[in-house]
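Late entry, evening session. Most of the bench is empty. Finally got around to the prediction I had been postponing all week. Sequence below, unchanged from the version circulated by S.P.
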Amino acid sequence: MSYVIGADCIDVLDRSCVEVCPVDCIYVGERKSYINAGECIDCGACEVECPVSAIVVDRVARRDETLNAHLEDSLLFFGQPLPGRALPLGDPGGARKIGEVGADTALVAGHPAP
């Protein structure tokens, strides 16, 4: 089990979830943040801190079509090369090590701007 950040985070990037994450597994893209399931310890600190309720546990996301799309999208964020990058992020061992990624998946990049 891990957590996933849904569409309500797009163009919000409050980062309060990043600040409370004890293992630094929340990576900041250009328009949205993503939780690395391989690094997440399932503590839930991010879920209660999110001001827009964009973070849900993955078992909940699997039951909702829109959230499930963001669950799959999060896997792509870490598993496939992002625009402007030759290699996938994978599990770098913490977001602070690499800083803001500055790129998003096609799902998020194609989401209408507010």
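Two things to note before I forget:
Residues 30 and 43 are 25 Å apart (CA to CA).
The longest strand covers residues 3-5.
Will write this up properly tomorrow.
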